[in-house]
């Protein structure tokens, strides 16, 4: 019987994704840096805190948020993803459930109207949540949510609504983790490096060279798929939709996504096979 393992687009075994919060003016420079190294990011925005509402103070400094117009210009056709962060950056688990749902729906409706597309992801404000909050996300059509629980690992989440990242860019082990990821050669299961943070932190800490050096280290690698959070989620779900014969020798792809599979046949060399959209393939 065949043994099969998921591969990312192009047959790759590694993916990298980033997630940055709040939608601050520093994201302009951040996007320029990420684009220079081919990195893809999900930006989590608080629509209720954009300057047309009120300024926000954080850590004793003005957190300069982008206006709705600037937000659309920066992220709209960038290839990066936009996602929810609650409307006004509240502790979702500490407020009445009806108000928590309003925070999510207000944020979702505003982003979808601004960008004219479905918005399906979220980063938890302050990284906090509860089972009740998770249930609210499900009812609002949110399919993944990022925590702030750095695990320093490269695994796909077992629960997409509690997606722990690899690390924050403030992590002392950032470059070591980056080197380990670049050098690894996964044999079976795919690996994902997930970096997160806030754009304003680079200005606050005067360390723009940190993300610059990280981009130089991990960017433009032929064996890494650079993807947004939702692109990884959608691809994995498409892979999970494959329909197999009992002995795993024939597979049908009922989705609109081209999917790659690593096939290990007894006594034969491993091979990576592409399963076209709508196709049935004998392995």
Which spans have pLDDT < 50 for at least 5 consecutive residues? none
Helix % is 25-40%
Distance between the termini: 11 Å
Order of helices and strands: EEHEEEHEHEHEEHEHHEHEEEEE
Main beta-sheet strand count, sense and barrel state: 6 strands, parallel
Helices and strands, with pairings:
Blueprint: E1 3-7, E2 14-22, H1 27-36, E3 41-45, E4 56-58, E5 61-63, H2 68-75, E6 81-84, H3 97-115, E7 121-123, H4 131-139, E8 144-146, E9 167-168, H5 174-183, E10 191-198, H6 200-204, H7 208-218, E11 224-226, H8 229-240, E12 243-244, E13 250-252, E14 259-264, E15 271-275, E16 280-282
Parallel strand pairs: 2-3, 2-10, 2-11, 3-6, 7-8, 9-10
Antiparallel strand pairs: 1-14, 4-5, 12-13, 13-16, 14-15
Helix pairs in contact: 3-4, 5-7
Structure commentary:
This protein has 283 residues and is α/β, with parallel strands linked by helices. 30% of the residues lie in helices and 24% in strands. The protein has helices at 27-36, 68-75, 97-115, 131-139, 174-183, 200-204, 208-218, 229-240, and strands spanning 3-7, 14-22, 41-45, 56-58, 61-63, 81-84, 121-123, 144-146, 167-168, 191-198, 224-226, 243-244, 250-252, 259-264, 271-275, 280-282. Strands 2, 3, 6, 9, 10 and 11 form a 6-stranded parallel beta sheet that branches.
Compose a concise summary of this entry:
The chain is 30% helix and 24% strand. The protein is built from eight helices and 16 strands.
Keywords:
8 helices, 283 residues, alpha/beta, 6-stranded parallel β-sheet, globular
């Amino acid at each position: 019987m065949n043994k099969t393992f998921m591969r990312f687009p192009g047959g790759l075994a590694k993916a990298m994704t980033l997630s940055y919060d709040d939608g601050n003016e520093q994201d302009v420079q951040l996007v320029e840096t990420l684009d220079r190294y081919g990195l893809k990011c999900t930006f989590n925005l608080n629509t209720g805190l954009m300057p047309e509402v009120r300024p926000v103070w954080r850590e004793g400094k003005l957190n300069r948020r982008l206006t709705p117009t600037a937000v659309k210009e920066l992220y709209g056709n960038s290839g990066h993803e936009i996602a929810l962060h609650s409307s006004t950056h509240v502790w979702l688990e500490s407020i009445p459930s009806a108000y928590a749902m309003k925070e999510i729906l207000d944020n979702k409706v505003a982003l979808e109207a601004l960008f004219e597309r479905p918005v399906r992801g979220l980063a938890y404000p302050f990284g906090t949540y509860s089972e009740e909050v998770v249930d609210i996300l499900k009812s609002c059509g949110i399919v993944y949510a990022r925590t702030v629980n750095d695990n320093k690992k490269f695994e796909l989440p077992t629960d997409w609504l509690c997606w722990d990242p690899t690390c924050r860019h403030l992590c002392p082990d950032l470059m070591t983790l980056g080197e380990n990821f670049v050098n690894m050669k996964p044999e079976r299961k795919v690996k994902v490096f997930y970096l997160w943070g806030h754009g304003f932190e680079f200005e606050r800490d005067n360390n723009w060279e940190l993300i610059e050096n990280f981009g130089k280290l991990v960017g433009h690698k032929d064996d890494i798929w650079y993807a947004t959070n939702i692109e990884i989620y959608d691809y994995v779900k498409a892979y999970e939709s494959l329909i197999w014969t009992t002995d795993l020798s024939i597979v049908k792809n009922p989705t609109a996504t081209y999917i790659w599979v690593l096939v290990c046949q007894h006594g034969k060399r491993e091979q990576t096979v592409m399963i076209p959209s709508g196709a049935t393939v004998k392995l």
